[in-house]
Design goal:
368 residues, alpha/beta, Rossmann fold, 2 domains, seven-stranded mixed β-sheet, 11 helices
Length: 368
């Protein structure tokens, strides 16, 4: 494999094995994700899961004209960079994009995909804003609706009456909708109340003051909708204040090394995720071992869903009819044998997956 850096990171798969063939006989696909910011835990894992799927596909295909070339762009969680990446890929002749990894970046690129009819298949976008559209947007990750409602029901069951939601505006397409779904469920039938505090993870953050302001309202629960680093650092401040409320988090917060930053507050966290905490990758130990052998670290949910997104796209590329568009082929995806579980993608590109409540015990996530 060759790795070049010319504004984007080019991963030219299998060219060493097919040096006698021209590269332009292969099919070009892009990957767009955040690889250099606080969201890089998700972006890097999603990229590597995608890369593994493409490498394995190319090994099976063998001949250069059947190869799929992956070009990787870092969107840096910046809409301008994300749109530029998409336009660059379009100019290079890309037929599709895996990514982006966050809802805000998907929202930035979504109109371009529809305008050009170049499909995007997101591994981890979960905002409800993309629900039910007959367009060029597809995803292998369920919307946040079920997860938010499940966590809100758990909060009610714990007897919480006042929850403050901490919203990161840097990924507003995700956090605002997550907060809204949680609030609707938590306050249903006149139960309790929800207040909201916002911050922007791309700006300088005074974590202690942020936690102080939240604590001043005396909530008995705090829902943190942020990346793992910011989630952990905010949680840590509550411990310093000597009063740790019940902490609630989405799967975004669980996507990286949350324990490293949250310290003693770790045991106060309850979250939701789409991977069964005890089963993990037990249904596909082959994926776990292949990923670890290739990249030297354990995969997380973003790696698994990156692999799933790539598999969905590769299947559509190989099964579409001669006169059929790739978008139409993706609409026929149906049932997929995913890394974590089987799922079904409907013709509008939306999926359903199970959601699990988890907490942290002795540094390990366990089911509730």
């Amino acid at each position: 494999m060759k790795v070049l850096n010319a504004g984007a990171l080019f991963l030219l798969l299998m060219t060493a094995l097919c040096g006698c063939e021209r590269r332009d006989q292969s099919t070009l696909v892009g990957f767009i994700g955040g690889l250099s910011t606080k969201t890089s835990d998700v972006g890097v894992m999603g990229r590597d899961g995608t890369l593994l799927a493409f490498e394995e596909f190319n090994l099976k295909q063998g001949h250069a004209r059947n190869q799929v070339e992956l070009v990787v762009y870092d969107d840096a969680q910046n809409p301008v960079r994300g749109r530029k990446a998409f336009r660059d890929l379009k100019e290079k002749g890309a037929v599709a994009v895996v990514g982006p990894m966050t809802s805000s970046m998907c929202e930035a690129i979504w109109p371009l995909a529809n305008e050009s009819v170049i499909p995007i298949v997101s591994p981890t976008c979960s905002s409800v804003v993309f629900d039910g559209h007959d367009d060029a947007f597809f995803r292998v990750y369920p919307t946040c609706r079920k997860a938010a409602k499940k966590l809100a029901a758990e909060a009610r069951g714990l007897g919480l009456e006042h929850v403050t939601v901490l919203v990161d505006l840097a990924n507003e397409s995700f956090t605002r909708y997550w907060a809204s779904q949680f609030t609707d469920e938590f306050t249903a039938n006149g139960h309790g109340r929800v207040s909201q505090v916002t911050f922007h993870s791309k700006q300088k953050i005074d974590y202690f003051t942020l936690a102080q302001n939240i604590s001043g309202a005396k909530p008995d629960g705090v829902l943190i909708l942020a990346n793992p680093t910011d989630t952990g650092l905010v949680a840590q401040q509550f411990a310093k204040l000597g009063n740790i409320p019940q902490l609630l988090v989405s799967e975004w917060s669980l996507s990286g090394d949350l324990n490293r930053y949250s310290g003693v507050a770790t045991g106060h966290i309850i979250g939701v995720q789409n991977i069964h905490p005890e089963q993990g990758f037990s249904t596909r130990p082959d994926f776990y071992s292949r990923f670890k052998a290739r990249f030297g670290r354990e995969p997380n949910f973003a790696a698994a869903f990156g692999y799933d997104a790539a598999q969905v796209l590769l299947r559509a590329l190989t099964t579409k009819g001669e006169d059929e568009s790739l978008v139409d082929a993706l609409r026929k995806t149906g049932q997929v044998d995913g890394v974590i579980n089987q799922f079904t993608m409907d013709r509008l590109g939306d999926v359903e997956r199970p959601v699990y409540l988890v907490t942290n015990k002795n540094g390990e996530l366990i089911g509730i």
